[in-house]
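Two proteins were folded this term; both appear here.
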Amino acid sequence: MDLGEGRFARASVELKVLPDTRRIRAYLRWSDGGKSPARYLGQVERETRAANLAEGWKMAWEKGLLTEEPQAEGSWASSPSVRAVMRANRSKDTRPELRLRSLLHKQGLRYRVAARPLPDLRRTADLIFSKPKVAVFVDGCFWHGCPEHLRESHKNAEFWRSKIEGNQTRDAETDRLLQEAGWTVVRVWEHEAPDAAAARVISVVRTSSADQHNSGQSESNMKR
């Protein structure tokens, strides 16, 4: 961001949810002499946090608030704006995750957040239900290659295709390793309706709990 007189600052897009209407507003924020000014960009209404951030950056460019900075050597992003969006895209506590967690909690389900189902396996699930051994992953449409919403980038296409295919291979391996260890894996796309996703998770958790209970009773009867 050009501050004038040869001064530049790194800017970021901030999203704020209005408590009464639940509408989302995008702001451009930057640092200047120890202060953090902000400029209102507009209202955003996309389905995901990543899409809303991208829309906010688009507004900032259209308003002429940003200027390109020199591309970092060896950078994987096609432009500074793309790099900023990707860096701002959270790996946890995303909006779809928070909605899902809220609905599950209201139904009385308790879970661990961002935890490893298997301590010795460096794979983290977004939610785990330890007793019924259910692991839930909320997958971003871009990073995990959603068949409905993935739009391939025209810039650095080979890099992004390789990155996404690598994520899909890792996802499949994670599912296999957890299933072999007796876990049930549930994968939720970030675009899924929260109520439908929550209902699916609840059904799996309760079915797994019932199966374990019945299995425990059968073993107890056999020992008698």
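Next, the second protein.
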Amino acid sequence: MLRETASQTAGPYVHIGLALAAAGNPTRDEEIWNEMARPEAEGEHIEVVGTVIDGNGDLVRDAFIEAWQADSNGEYQPEFDLEKPFNSFGRTATTFDHGSEWSLTTVKPGPVAHASGQSQAPHINLAIFARGINIQLQTRLYFDDEAEANAACPVLSRIESPVRRQTLIAKREEVDGKVRYRLDIRLQGEGETVFFDF
């Protein structure tokens, strides 16, 4: 049986082209990065942070994450423009510095319409790329202070196990007077994050 070659996995090479600062390379003037909301964007300004942990319980220090979310009114902004106060799309990465955390500066998304007619709870869609992963992993981040919306969410409620559901719930913290949510992503093993196939 033939083994995978380095070119058949997503990382660590993805940093060279898409996470220049994390790779220690000079950045471009117009970079899609982790600031999704500028200070003038409408809504509650938040920071989202976390780590990526492998099946051995070790930090993955070169994971790359793409985020896609609605604005504070629950609407996706399909056109990316660095001049806009808010963009629905952002990128971040874990690094060998700062405890190997990824972070996003954004606004808390509003509820999003679902095909069933129900509203989806506020959430951020995350795609995780890392060494050894051939196709990115898709997951979501929900907010622990949205318990009522989470309970009624047609997507979150499809996860039958309440324990497994908790792997998608970010915990609210306040740091230096700012609101921050923390979600650690576990790729395998005990407490593995729920991943979606869509």
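The first helix runs from residue 14 to 18. The mean pLDDT is 90. These notes refer to the second protein only.
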